[in-house]
């Protein structure tokens, strides 16, 4: 039986036996692995949503923030902040850095603060008097805007009137 001739434009050594193209196989494998790696990392929560708890305390109060530190565009999530008074607090105020609001849609807060203002890039929520041992949980509902990508400072400060009691430093990374 005679060997079949390949169609015009097809070189048997190059196209069937891959002579001179052995590295192309590895390039394809690397490309496929890159495509497969993204969903695997997403399944392991590398791109957001898993909340992490950060807390700070002093002799007057304790502040705990439970919120994701990695997000992705379009994600809906809730942040829980808990103030625990160790000593009396006359006028509890939470101040959120501008990074909380950059590229985010602020949907709701519960319980509602008695007053809300913005000063020099900080959003201030006023909750009034807290007795020793009293816990004040606060929930804020957010959505990440799809164009928000990068790292943002999300510092939180707790004040008693004009006196700063606590500073909690944190940051969030937003993936596309």
Structure explained in plain terms:
A hairpin with a 3-residue loop joins strand 1 (51-57) and strand 2. With 176 residues, this protein is α+β, with helices and mostly antiparallel strands. The protein folds into two domains: 12-43; 51-175, Immunoglobulin-like. The model has no long low-confidence stretch (mean pLDDT 90). Helix content is 15%, strand content 49%. It contains two helices and 13 strands; from the N terminus they run H-H-E-E-E-E-E-E-E-E-E-E-E-E-E. The longest helix has 22 residues, at 22-43. The protein has helices at 12-16, 22-43, and strands at 51-57, 61-68, 70-72, 76-85, 89-96, 104-110, 115-119, 122-130, 135-144, 150-153, 156-160, 163-168, 171-175. A five-stranded antiparallel sheet has the order 1-2-4-9-6, with no helix packed on it. The termini are far apart.
Keywords:
Immunoglobulin-like; 5-stranded antiparallel β-sheet; 49% strand; 2 domains; 176 residues; alpha+beta; single chain
Rg for CA atoms: 27 Å
Shape: rod-shaped
Describe the oligomeric state of these chains in a short phrase: single chain
Which CATH class of the largest domain applies here? Answer: Mainly Beta
Count of individual domains: 2
Number of helices: 2
């Amino acid at each position: 039986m005679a060997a079949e001739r390949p169609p015009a434009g097809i070189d048997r050594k190059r196209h069937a036996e891959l002579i001179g193209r052995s590295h192309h196989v590895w390039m394809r494998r690397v490309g496929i692995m890159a495509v497969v790696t993204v969903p695997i990392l997403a399944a392991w929560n590398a791109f957001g949503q898993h909340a992490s708890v950060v807390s700070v305390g002093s002799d007057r109060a304790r502040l705990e923030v439970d919120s994701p530190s990695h997000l992705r565009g379009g994600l809906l999530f809730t942040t829980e902040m808990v103030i625990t008074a160790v000593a009396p607090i006359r006028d509890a105020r939470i101040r959120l850095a501008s990074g909380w609001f950059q590229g985010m849609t602020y949907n709701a807060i519960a319980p509602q603060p008695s007053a809300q203002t913005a000063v020099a890039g900080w959003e201030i929520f006023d909750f009034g008097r807290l007795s020793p041992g009293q816990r004040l949980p606060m929930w804020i509902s957010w959505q990440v805007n799809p164009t928000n990508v990068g790292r943002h400072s999300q510092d939180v400060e707790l004040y008693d009137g004009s006196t700063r009691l606590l500073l909690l430093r944190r940051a969030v990374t937003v993936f596309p």
